[in-house]
Design a protein that fits this description.
alpha+beta; Transferase(Phosphotransferase), domain 1; 3 domains; five-stranded antiparallel sheet; 14 helices; globular; membrane; protein tyrosine kinase activity
């Protein structure tokens, strides 16, 4: 085998280019992979002229000889290089000093650990794929034996682990439905029947290329209030740099119960501005199932955003996972109806949410009133739900539609996909979707037709809703108003069994 490597340089701002000097490598550009352990070193010195944080990428290309059965392998290692003005080189660290050794000659190029890593990745991938297929088949067969056709069991009963073993959907044209996964045709008789005043629901279609016409920060500025009008009473949630308080808002001498989102002094200016941008997403909207911004204090490095609330309102994900509350299936369907109503309201006004999930909803346990909120601070408060795929952008990978992962496309249909994962969260009492899948493999997993399997306490009718939300072709998915109509009818039908 031969090794070819590239050091990908800085791309972007001129300041970043000035901050770095040319990389220094004590290994030739090409050579044969050694059969014994050897070490090479790459130094990326700073110029000391400016301060900058530069994303770096080291690409290692391991090429197989032509005509062999081995595949070429590429390893990409990404790191951020920090350079400080006035500091030309980082402090020395004797514990990690690398000697040049024999790799200065033209034939030495790399060490055998790279090949071992490649082989290990291939072996793990093969074994994992085999386990996915075997476990999925076993799980589907077991659920077909144990689940009745219409199971209206309580979704909060014990024994649910939240496991999301996958099932593969045969999405080839002309293929027969396997019976374990629904298609849009399964819901068509339910949401397409005439319903009088609901007729407008069925005329709705998916909207793409939705654009933000105004600066979201302008909405927050329009709601600006003095700092003295907000009082943070008790801490509810805390992350690395974000905090959520219960508090009061004093307007015209009257106190109003609010939830207050803010950042701490350790937050960067970017994190503070991101709070304002995301917190303004639903500002100005008036709807019973939407938690919109009511006031903002922007006259300090730590902005405060206030949302109307009740004294006992909880984050929905916290409500589902605390082990205290045990809603039955009809209660969970009621929750889904309210979130679908909020989604239909947004889509009807040409707005996308882009992050529909339990963590971005609020619930009153006493009456199960639910409101869809924005995603401000969600990345900090629920870091396990967001992942960065090497592009310095944390995204809710496990809630995203396949076209969003592949092409960064967003539409009302991608919100519908996220809503399907949200339904799965409800039934599993806050379970983590696709927990067995590495975030870097999510796009390939969805593209190859794998989806979440039906949870054990989930009625077939409710899982059919999830299934059509995850159809690979965006236009084949139902609209949010159609989902609202079906879920409302399903909720009413469940009431007939009580």
């Amino acid at each position: 085998m031969e090794l070819d490597y590239d050091v990908v340089g800085v791309q972007g701002l001129n300041a970043e280019a000035v901050a770095l000097l040319r990389p220094r490598v004590n290994v030739s550009a090409k050579g044969e992979v050694p059969v014994t352990l050897q070490i090479f070193r790459i130094r990326i010195p700073c110029s000391g002229l400016v301060s900058a944080e530069i994303p770096m990428a080291l690409r290692l290309n391991v090429s197989a000889p032509p005509g062999t059965r081995y595949n070429d392998t590429t390893l990409i290692l990404r790191r951020n290089k920090i350079c400080l003005k006035g500091v030309e080189a980082p402090p020395s660290n004797d514990s990690i000093r690398l000697e040049a050794g024999p790799l200065m000659n033209g034939t030495g190029a790399f060490y055998i650990a790279a090949i071992c890593a490649c082989a290990l990745i291939l072996v793990i991938g093969s074994v994992t794929s085999a386990l996915y297929i075997r476990n999925s088949k076993a799980r589907v067969q077991e659920s077909q034996k144990t689940l009745p056709c219409c199971s209206y069991s309580a979704a909060g009963t014990g024994g649910l682990t939240g496991s999301s073993v996958l099932v593969r959907v045969d999405h080839r044209p002309g293929s027969a439905n396997s019976g374990s996964y629904a298609t849009i045709a399964d819901l068509e008789p339910l949401y397409a029947r005439p319903c009088g005043s609901r007729a407008s629901y069925y005329a709705a279609s998916h909207v793409t290329n939705v654009s933000q016409t105004t600066d979201p920060c302008d909405k927050a500025r329009a709601m600006a209030i003095p700092r003295s009008a907000l009082y943070c009473r008790s801490l509810v949630q805390e992350g690395t740099f974000g905090r959520v308080y219960k508090g009061t808002l004093n307007v015209a001498g009257r106190d109003q119960e609010v939830i207050i989102k803010t950042v701490t002094e350790v937050a960067s200016a970017y994190q503070a501005s991101l709070l304002v941008v995301e917190g303004s997403q639903l500002a100005g909207l008036v709807h019973g199932n939407i938690a919109s911004l009511v006031a903002a204090c922007l006259d300090s490095p730590c902005p405060l955003l206030a949302y109307s609330s009740s004294s006992n309102e909880l984050n929905l994900k916290t409500y589902l996972t605390d082990g205290v509350h045990h809603p039955v299936t009809r209660d969970l369907v009621n929750v889904s109806v309210q979130v679908a109503r909020a989604g239909a309201f947004l889509h009807g006004r040409g707005l996308l949410h882009r992050d529909i999930a339990a963590r971005n909803c609020l619930i009153e346990p006493s009456n199960l009133r639910v409101r869809l909120a924005d995603a401000a601070l969600a990345r900090d408060l629920f870091p396990q739900d967001y992942h960065c795929l090497g592009d310095n952008e944390n995204r809710p990978i496990r809630w995203m539609a396949v076209e969003s992962l592949q092409h960064n496309q967003y539409s009302t249909a991608t919100d519908v996909w996220s809503f399907g994962v949200f339904l799965w969260e409800l039934v599993t009492m806050g379970g983590q979707p696709y927990v067995e899948v590495d975030p870097f493999e999510m796009m390939a997993c969805l593209r190859d037709g794998y989806r979440l399997v039906q949870p054990r306490p989930c009625p077939d009718e409710l899982f059919a809703v999830m299934a059509v939300c995850w159809l690979g072709i965006a236009r084949d998915r139902p609209t949010m108003p159609q989902l609202l109509a079906y879920l409302q009818e399903f909720h009413d039908a469940l009431g007939g069994f009580i």
